[in-house]
TrEMBL record:
<dbReference type="Pfam" id="PF00400">
    <property type="entry name" value="WD40"/>
</dbReference>
<feature type="repeat" description="WD">
    <location>
        <begin position="298"/>
        <end position="333"/>
    </location>
</feature>
<dbReference type="InterPro" id="IPR001680">
    <property type="entry name" value="WD40_rpt"/>
</dbReference>
<feature type="compositionally biased region" description="Acidic residues">
    <location>
        <begin position="494"/>
        <end position="509"/>
    </location>
</feature>
<feature type="compositionally biased region" description="Acidic residues">
    <location>
        <begin position="43"/>
        <end position="52"/>
    </location>
</feature>
<keyword id="KW-0597">Phosphoprotein</keyword>
<dbReference type="Pfam" id="PF23609">
    <property type="entry name" value="Beta-prop_EIPR1"/>
</dbReference>
<feature type="domain" description="EIPR1-like beta-propeller">
    <location>
        <begin position="302"/>
        <end position="421"/>
    </location>
</feature>
<dbReference type="InterPro" id="IPR036322">
    <property type="entry name" value="WD40_repeat_dom_sf"/>
</dbReference>
<keyword id="KW-0677">Repeat</keyword>
<feature type="region of interest" description="Disordered">
    <location>
        <begin position="31"/>
        <end position="52"/>
    </location>
</feature>
<dbReference type="InterPro" id="IPR020472">
    <property type="entry name" value="WD40_PAC1"/>
</dbReference>
<protein>
    <recommendedName>
        <fullName>EIPR1-like beta-propeller domain-containing protein</fullName>
    </recommendedName>
</protein>
<dbReference type="InterPro" id="IPR059104">
    <property type="entry name" value="Beta-prop_EIPR1-like"/>
</dbReference>
<keyword id="KW-0853">WD repeat</keyword>
<feature type="repeat" description="WD">
    <location>
        <begin position="255"/>
        <end position="297"/>
    </location>
</feature>
<dbReference type="InterPro" id="IPR019775">
    <property type="entry name" value="WD40_repeat_CS"/>
</dbReference>
Length: 509
């Protein structure tokens, strides 16, 4: 399943991501000591770990010896391997003193290969890679400045990962996208937030990072320009390391940490060092990612907080929505003010500020409705809804505004449907409806620099990208905001399979 989606703007990702060197023995030991691998404290598990390490060492010794023996078997010394040949080979390997030797046999160099061939180029067993294959591999790994990147938080067969997908627009107007690389996550991902604040540089700068909230209380931030990275470059909060062994009496959290799952994240695009998080521990936290600390905690809700959203026009205004049937608007310049609490009719699923109107925001609810609000109506009793839209038959799990076309909204629901709405004059009207075969929809996201492209993820785990401009209603009402010619509308229900990668169902409509 795909639980969250984030777009990376064009030209941000490194052309060829750097490959991380495999960890050294010392680094592996440090990871184990840090508790990252959830190593148990009891002595039985420690004994098992030691046995596993010893077994791995023995397996490595044996595999090295077998490889050497195989290499001897492949030499043109004899065409058969009789008893005498075997005895001679074992003498050469000196297996009786194998563990005492400091220097192992170098299979493909002086010990074997150079005995018969002056150079590797002359060895028929060492084939040179096809240069064309190398060029193709480099081309596949290259992310061009014209490519967009989509980050999917997905879980398949109990394996959770971030999937980095490249999306390119071809010269003929068609689209192509494929999986570029993956980042393995230690826990089930619930939400993501892309950020270009380079936390590796003092004072910030441009970067390509993604924050991930999971079923654990810690927030992990990963560098998307690295391949085969084993650990996040920054962790906010989480469980403190234990200093003493013994029976667990309680969980010790790092200072400022959430104490339950992280359900929502949003990065402040104006004040770039701040990241807001919502948690099942009923709190909202603001993190200073430059310093790596919790900057402030808000406890205005009485139940799980599902979503947070910064106002892109007013960077001090923060929304939070909860299962306590309320939405709170706070101004971070006044930390002692409780904010304006608005009552809604059901559990809050998602929040979205209108990118074209600094005073308007939307709330999607578990009962299938979407409500619009205007902050100018705020009072001691909160804000009154400017409209209520009965959008779906089941929870509206995701809402997203089109950044290109004012008043164009997409909604996704666990009823498997994705709908497009025109919100002009606070009188919503549906302009398109589609079942994209994603299963129950959990996440939708319009691209900021690929006009009218909508990414969808759901329970089936297939990333879908819908070119909404192919819909007649969208082209007629919003086509004037596009800088490209609207594609010919497809027949209802028709789908185009762009490319599949290892049967992961990457497709576009």
């Amino acid at each position: 399943m795909i639980s969250a989606i984030s777009w990376v703007p064009k030209g941000i990702a490194r052309a060829i991501p750097a490959e991380v060197e495999p960890p050294t023995k010392e680094e592996i030991e440090e990871i184990i000591k840090s508790g990252t691998l959830d190593r148990s404290d009891d002595s039985e598990n420690e004994d098992n770990d030691e046995m596993d390490l010893d077994a791995a060492k023995r397996a490595g010794d044996i595999s090295q010896a077998l490889a050497a023996a195989k290499a001897l078997d492949m030499t043109p010394k004899t065409s058969t391997f009789g008893t005498k040949d075997m005895t001679d080979a074992l003498k050469e390997l000196n297996m009786d003193n194998y563990d005492e030797e400091d220097d192992g046999i170098e299979i493909f160099s002086t010990a074997i290969g150079d005995r018969y061939y002056p150079s590797n180029e002359m060895d028929p067993y060492l084939k040179k890679d096809d240069e064309d294959d190398d060029d193709d591999e480099i081309e596949d790994m290259t992310i061009k400045a014209t490519d967009a990147v989509i980050i999917c938080a997905r879980t398949d067969d109990d394996i959770s990962q971030l999937q980095v997908c490249v999306f390119e627009e071809l010269e003929d107007g068609e689209f192509n996208f494929y999986s570029h690389h993956d980042i393995i996550l230690p826990a089930f991902p619930l939400c993501t937030a892309w950020l270009d604040f380079d936390i590796k540089k003092n004072g910030g700068g441009k970067g390509n990072f993604v924050a991930v909230g999971t079923m654990e209380p810690a927030i992990e931030i990963w560098d998307l320009d690295l391949i085969d990275e084993l650990q996040p470059c920054l962790v906010l909060g989480g469980v403190a390391k234990k200093k003493k062994k013994g029976k667990k009496k309680g969980i010790n959290y790092l200072e400022g940490s959430h104490t339950d799952s992280v359900l929502g994240l949003d990065w402040n695009k104006k004040e770039k060092k701040y990241l807001a998080s919502a948690s099942a521990d009923n709190s909202v936290k603001i993190w200073d990612i430059e310093a790596g600390i919790c900057f402030a905690t808000r406890n205005g809700h009485s139940d799980k907080v599902q979503a947070v959203a910064w106002n892109p026009h007013a960077p001090n205004a923060l929304l939070s929505g909860s299962f306590d049937h309320s939405v709170i608007l706070v101004d971070m310049r006044y930390p002692s003010h409780p904010g304006f609490k608005s009552v809604v009719t059901a559990d809050v699923e998602c929040l979205a500020w209108d990118p074209h109107d600094e005073n308007s925001f939307l709330v999607s609810l578990e009962d299938g409705t979407v409500q619009g609000f205007d902050v100018r109506t705020a009072s001691s009793e909160g804000c009154k809804p400017s409209f209520t839209l009965h959008a779906h038959d089941k929870p509206v799990s995701s809402i997203t505004f089109c950044p290109t076309a004012p008043k164009l909204l997409a909604t996704g629901s666990t009823d498997k449907m994705v709908k497009l709405w025109d919100l002009s004059n606070n009188q919503p009207s549906c302009v398109a409806t589609k079942n994209l075969k994603a299963g129950a929809v959990f996440s939708t996201s319009f691209s900021e620099d690929c006009p009218f492209l909508l990414a969808i993820g759901g329970s089936k785990g297939d990333l879908q990208v819908w070119d909404t401009l192919t819909e007649t209603g969208v082209a007629r009402r919003f086509g004037k905001y596009s800088n490209r010619k609207p594609p010919a509308p497809r027949e209802e229900g028709a789908e185009q399979e762009i490319e599949e990668d290892d049967d992961e169902g990457l497709s576009s409509d």
